[in-house]
Amino acid sequence: MEHSYVAIPPTAFVGLSCIYCNKMAEPHDSGTPRLLSRCHRCRRVWYCNSDCQKAHHSEHKLFCKTIHSVDASNDPEVIQQLLGPFRSTSNATTRLDEISVLHRCQIIDLYQRKRPLNKAELYLLSCEPRCLGCAKTDNVLRMEANLSGQDRVQTLKPCPRCMMVFFCDGHRSSEVDLHRDTSSDNGFASECNLSRQIRLDSEFRLLMPSPHLHMWRFIPRQDIWISLKGLSWDAALSAPIRAALPTDTSVEHLAGCLRLVSCLASTVMTVLYALEFCLGPTVASCSTLTIHVLGARAEFTSAVTYMYEAILHRLPNVKNLHILFCDNLGGSQGHVVKDVVLCKDCQNSSAHMIHEYIDHAYVKHLSRGTDFKAPDLCILMNGYIANHETDLWSETIRLLLERGVPSLFTANDALYARRDCDLLCGLGARLISGLTLASNPWGSLASDLNLDTLYGFCSANKWLVGCFS
């Protein structure tokens, strides 16, 4: 069975969980996690035992060979390309972010020349640990030691508290205190605490491998609509989560479950939040709703099913819910329509939900003239519209504006939110106050590593880019 690196938690890329089975490392007597055994050839993956390494060998061997052939190269051109980004003496954060991204692109280009890499392998390389003070990887440190004739080759060492952020010998003492200070980007948590939270959430997901199967318990069906304005994840879901979990569940795991549920339910709660702004008080009495979700593939998994069923749970008067998915670029899935089997509570209330996937760009769907039926809300989550397929997105947004389709855009970090908002404003969108360049109260509480920075963080739907109606 093919193994997906993308489905593996971040802990697997720093030696805290097995790349094959995801099992977490056993802690030391001090309580800190113990690193697993590293593949001695490519030095990019870790295993909990030889059985997992053997089981993973058939899939890993070509990738391993490719990585090793480049890392062990004595070609001056290869060495110059790999070490070139680190010639600068600047340690400014923005400069280190640029170095990190540039070096990642260069090593991927070198490996791709040897053998085309699949998406999972590209993701694995993108998550390679780097020193917080200089952005160097273990491989860069080895190459520098070989060029200078040093007998001792230093390796990156993790922060002993979070075990997710790394330092070389030259930056450990100068950077570790900054790493533990409150992050200006987040305001409420240090970089160290956020990294530790990512590790703890990875551990929690192993204890609760299929939380989406119980989503309906965490977002139970309500008798009446309750406004989301002024509420928070804790106020809305802590009580049902506590009731759904065993009574002996620790406080730490309760918090982990809330973050995990917020990650799964962020899209739905953001949709409901936007509907309340766009439809006003009438949202409570709606019997039919149509939502168009852009940038989505036809993945009718149980997670997707339960995710959107939560709309029926929060809006009990809705009897017919139609969710249309479109990846906007067009796809090869074909036209798919599925009548979703709902939970017993929804069935007893005579509610129905249809999932539909269209296999052409949404701009074509908008151009159907009188055949086009405007949805109650069109939404694009974490879309990067100002950085990816901008011309196509611009044309789509112009048509949405012309047809008066209520539309919401979100981003997972502040930089992309500002860029996307500028694009919307430049196209003449009159954005709704409260849903424009604002922190989303229903963004995911679970942080993830931001691969566009050295050690930055992002969260799904963290920012409301803008909404027009």
From TrEMBL:
Q: Name one Pfam family in it.
A: zf-MYND
Q: Where is the MYND-type domain?
A: 18-64
Concerning PROSITE patterns, the annotation shows: ZF_MYND_1, ZF_MYND_2
User: What are the alphabetically sorted keywords of the record?
Assistant: Metal-binding, Zinc, Zinc-finger
Q: Which InterPro entries match?
A: Mss51-like_C, Znf_MYND
Q: Where is the signal peptide?
A: none
Molecular-function GO term, any one: zinc ion binding
Q: What is this protein called?
A: MYND-type domain-containing protein
